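Dear Dr. H.,

I hope your travels went smoothly. While you were away I took the liberty of generating a structure for the chain from your last submission, since the lab meeting agenda had it listed for discussion. I wanted you to have the full record in hand beforehand rather than looking at slides cold. The sequence, exactly as received, is reproduced here:
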Amino acid sequence: MTVIQSTTDPSMMQMVAAAPVASFIFAITIASSLWAFSNENLYANMILQPFSVYRRQRVYTVITSGMIHNDWIHLFFNMLSYYFFAFQLEPMLGHWQFGFLYVASLILSDLPTVFKHKNDEWYHSLGASGAVSAVIFSYIMYNPVSSMYIIPFPFPIYSIVFGILYLVYCNYASKHSRDNINHDAHMFGALSGLLITIILHPHVVHDFISQISAKVQSLMH
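The corresponding predicted structure, in token form, is as follows:
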């Protein structure tokens, strides 16, 4: 699922200056993914295998697995969602705070998968989806009534509505889906983004509630 936010695009230099950490993560994720596409050894060393991590082997892959992707489509849609939210979020959240949220969410989004598949030697997981979900949900805490577009649907929805539907879907898909998507990472990444944002900026809860209350009152009148 790819989510975009309608906004006026600043110049590249303005984006890098306002969000240097997001820019670095964006560049390194694309570069490492492209490198791994043509380097099987690198791909194998960076991918997450819960069976190994649970046995304290290649523990670093809870981070490196978020720096590579399965194919061009996987990379494109993850980075498209990241682009529309990360560069807006960092100025609101703070530079080191954004970096902490992203890396911590990479780890936290993978831990449930590690425990769930600790005995499945065949299971592997990769991609930045957990951390990207965290970025989107952190953004939602700051802008719960902003408009979001979900590809391929042509109409916008409020970001708080998207957040609720997303969590419901991820929970359902985690239990019932038979595809190769790690829905647990999506869900726990999103929840990590909410929790870390609240810990870093507790005032965001009051602003979140105030924005929703104001929107409800405006709709009722």
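Two observations you may find useful: The mean pLDDT is 92. Residues 12 and 23 are 10 Å apart (CA to CA).

With kind regards,
E. W.
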